[in-house]
Amino acid sequence: MQRLTGRLGGLAYGGDYNPEQWDEQVWKEDDLLMRRAGVNLATVGVFSWALLEPEEGRFDFGWLDAQLDRLHGNGVAVDLATPTASPPPWFTLAHPEAMPVTADGTRLTHGSRDTYCLASPAYRRAAVRIASALAERYGTHPAVAMWHIHNEYATVCWCEQSAAAFRSWLRARYGTLDALNDSWGTAFWSQRYGSWEQITPPRATQWHHNPGHTLDFRRFWSDEALAAYREQRDAIRAHSGLPVTTNLMLPGYQVLDLWRFGREVDFVGIDHYPDAPGTDAAADTAFGADRARSFGGGKPWLLIEQGASTVYAGDRTLGKQPGEMLRHSLGHIARGSEGALFFQWRQSRAGAELWHSAMVPHAGADTRIFREAAALGEAVARLGELAGSTVRAQAAVLHDADSWWALDTRGLPSAELDYPGSLRRAHRTLWDAGVTTDFAHPEDDLSRYRLVVAPALYLLSDAGAEALHRYVEGGGTLLVQHFCGAVDERHHARLGGYPAGPLRTALGIRGEEYRPLAAGETVALSDGSTGTVWSESLRCEGAEPVLSYASGMLAGQPALTRHGFGRGTGWYLSTRLGDPGYAALMARLLEDAGAAPEVAGLPEGVEAVRRHGEDGRSWLFLINHGGQPARITVAGLDLLTGAEAGPDGLHLPAGGAAVLRTVD
Ligand code: GAL
Q: CB of 86 closer than 6 A to ligand 1?
């Protein structure tokens, strides 16, 4: 990453650039407008396969040579993409077996994008061939500053080629069919496999799938995507020493194990499109950004795509409010992004995404959107000095792809067990409390966090249960929420009481019976608050009850427990508290754990996050998402305005933002 920001002389600003959709006159205007907007990085070639390789094995690089030279001449560096997310029609016709097949057996064809099976040998060969050809030609081109592989690895396939690759993956994982049968529990429903060939991807079937089967297929697919990424990355590395990454789709993304991807990219790159307007979009931005930073081990990362003026809201896109482009971009940069890029530079006039927003809208440069894009470019340029600085979090929310996938299984006791929703809620509650939060894997060493929250850790490995035990014993404060640690990594129930053994010891409880609540049912708790979704019959084995059930069959039994264990404290919450109760619990835990908000006593709607440099300097981002002006007692030089926040503090207008340089 340092190589990229060093080359750019600061943070990155720009977006996807698709000059092949336009003519020379527009290119000339692009040059001018990119200068006006302070664009220094353009992502080129993401969907250019059909132009770059018009026939199998015949390359045409002439047009790209000219575009790269032009961008370079205009002072814009290039994030050069491999175009493998959208194979051209000739590819389908030459390799029909490489087209994806859905779980119900429908074979898809070209006409959209992402029409390939990642496990298809023909596709993988073609992808590596074009990646190698690009790297060979442009590996040392002066315009190119980084490599961008593919686009949002996501497409899953259930075809015969996927089946063959799945079987190889299973053989490597289990060695013998007996081990596989045991792991999947095929003694149930007469599912025993007598040969490897009998195993298929979990295609459409009569009723519930085998949960071990579906979980392994998801693990396999994530590994397959990672293998496809690695092949292209290594092909590029043979010709270029520049950083290589891919744009990961966040945050509702569940096809990849992003911890593993995070280890294979030179830096994490994400796309982020909030799915709700207003404060929810700001909280969602923080959610995506905190995840991106965490998947990269805390290192700086890059926001590769965002929308200039739209947020997705179910079945429609809503316009961003004036100033939201700046606030969302700063929200990402505050949490470790080394810049802000968009999809895309110029709004397309044709094609499937002609109504997708862009930095230069259909109406041209004389628009609010372009003026805001240009002002944002100026703001990003003023922040160059903080490149390389990092974010320190006091709290962590546990995230694990296996748990997400396992909880996404049909046939669980309640359809309201919502993995992403539970993670978002825990993160949002900490965000509302002003506390900077990481995501962490349950098997990590968590000792640097004062508070760790496990909102939806349904599946927990033995190693994870031991790591959590160690964390509490060593002095951490841990909150474990309902139905956590109920199954092991094979999706087998934990026997002898929930959750997993070593975690049970740290929490001082034994879960005996789970009792999901009916839709809309509430259960009263001893302090007058209520729980929904879930309840559990718990026995305290060392823990003290903090709240108990006040109604229903579990009346008098513990609902929330606290256990002093070793030097730390393990809390267990066996129901879903209402928002006020959950916020109050989190506030209490933060206080007990000694975790403080970045700036105490902030007015509602003001977000504060700090980036720390190695030289003792730090940069405090203050973003006012609310509708009221705010006065905040902080001091420092605001990089955005060049003004010093004086003794009576900083005045932040409604919707305003500041980035204060301070000394730690
Ligand atoms: C991203 C994708 C872009 C564009 C964008 C629209 O997921 O990478 O190509 O489709 O969404 O929001």
A: no
